[in-house]
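# step 3/5: fold
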Amino acid sequence: MGKKPENRLNDLSGREWLYWTDTLYITAYPVDATHPLRKQHGAMKPPEVMAEIVRFFTKKGEMVLDPFAGVGGTLLGAELEERQALGFEINPRWVEIYATICRNFAICEGQIRPLKEIAGQAYRRISAPMYQGDCLKLLKELPPASVDAIITDPPYGCDHGATGFADETNFNMQGQVPDPWADLGNAPDLAAFLTGMASVGRELHRVLKPGRYLVMMVGDRYRQGEYLPLGYILANCMREVGFKLKGVKIWSNKATRRRLKPYAVYSVFVPNITHQNILILRKE
């Protein structure tokens, strides 16, 4: 019997590895203890889903970066899997929500639980840092080839009607008004969004270690009466800055999926988009 090959990417068994290569990824994670806080962000992801992604693309102790950290789903997933993690987020409101979670929750028996409920039990504090600011500027402070995986849910900024942070508070919480291009969630159109994402993508390529992965969760859109395959479009954008597209997983979480709406019933086909694309790109 031959020697078992070295697992150079993660700590999974061959069976676990094979299971995760299925391009259909259907989960049923209910809302977690942090959901009442995190739901203020319209695009938060279950920490358990992010933990599964982290588990496949890293080994224990490696560094995960999320340049669009939101309310910290990726960082919480990394904490569950005992990875190091680092997040950047432009919106101070989301950074503060994540800071509140760090103060009031901890990892206990493999779950994120309120500190007040785990007195006397062994637990780990949530300590992955999240820095507030424009990720393009913050990325420039990281050394080349310094992170093991980049796992993120970027803003969709393609004229899709989101108000975003700029409209909510005019970025005046700290007396500063940043570059209007900094918040890609408020890009005026798809072309502007892709220009901004290309700039970020080049920095992501620089800081990621060779042979490692950029994983992006991207929902498609329906705009002006036409399906917009934003996942495919953004994948091509990342390919143009040097990444190789290695695959796509189609993800849907049954427990939190929104109800179907009767768009144009009895008239024309309009999809209820209940999935997201998990784009898997590699630096080679």
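# step 4/5: annotate
The chain has one domain: 14-282.
# step 5/5: archive (pending)
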